[in-house]
Backbone:
């Protein structure tokens, strides 16, 4: 258990507890139950921005608050196989958003408007297939709802998955490949743009691993198949109508020395 209290001279005070209960249900199974609250204090620009032609600050803002509950299971299915499952639920209140003013030509202002709630789960497996090969897989699903309109909150993906293989094919060498899949990102209510496209990326890395007092080198190719990736910009998309483009295929070289 823990307790945190913060006091700000401009936005007041907040107190946030955290509790965790850990149960060794069996020799190979651990169960955790967690509960906690947290907050996000308004940023300086959200409080005091005055010369921005689009969004003006609001000194009367309150911190955003979140209350979360989580159950986590960790199962050592075999000596070489581990499975982890997390199930969670959260609720955010006093969400800070830019709200359009009704007067013609007036800029929008930051306000505490609306609440959100969401739930989901994460599943992860780690398998040491051999002494030289480790496989990791992760899948997550979530949904967040705007309580005012009871519509999807948007931005975050409903589904995502990750896979990785690490292969020590020779002494002092490591090859890694990973796959990322992100899907089902909705627009928030009022954003009339097309839905954000799904994407899949593949990365590959080759590195040396010589230990202490030696130079190590690595080369990486990220987004190997040159997938088009964009992250959603804020609704309604006036400032950035085409979202935020991410890097296409890229190459990296690295040298490091371990002391």
Residues:
């Amino acid at each position: 258990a823990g307790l945190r209290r913060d006091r700000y001279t401009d936005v007041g005070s907040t107190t946030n507890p955290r509790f965790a209960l850990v149960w060794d249900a069996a020799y190979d199974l651990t169960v955790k139950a967690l509960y906690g609250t947290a907050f996000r204090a308004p940023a300086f620009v959200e409080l005091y921005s005055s010369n921005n032609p689009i969004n003006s600050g609001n000194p009367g803002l309150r911190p955003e608050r979140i209350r979360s509950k989580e159950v986590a299971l960790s199962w050592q299915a075999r000596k070489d196989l581990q499975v982890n499952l997390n199930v969670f639920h959260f609720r955010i209140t006093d969400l800070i958003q830019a709200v359009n003013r009704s007067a013609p030509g007036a800029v929008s202002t930051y306000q505490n408007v609306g609440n959100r709630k969401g739930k989901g789960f994460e599943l992860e497996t780690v398998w040491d297939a051999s002494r030289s090969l480790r496989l990791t897989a992760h899948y997550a699903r979530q949904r967040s709802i705007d309580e005012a309109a009871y519509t999807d909150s948007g931005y975050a993906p409903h589904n995502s998955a990750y896979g990785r293989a690490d292969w020590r094919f020779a002494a002092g060498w490591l090859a890694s490949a990973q796959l990322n899949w992100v899907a089902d990102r909705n627009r928030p209510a009022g954003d009339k743009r097309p839905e954000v496209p799904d994407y899949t990326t593949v990365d590959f890395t080759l590195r040396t691993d010589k230990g202490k007092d030696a130079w190590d080198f690595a080369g990486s190719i990220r987004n190997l198949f040159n997938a088009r990736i964009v992250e959603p910009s804020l609704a309604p998309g006036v400032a950035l109508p085409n979202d935020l483009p991410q890097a296409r295929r890229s190459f990296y070289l690295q040298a490091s020395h371990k002391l």
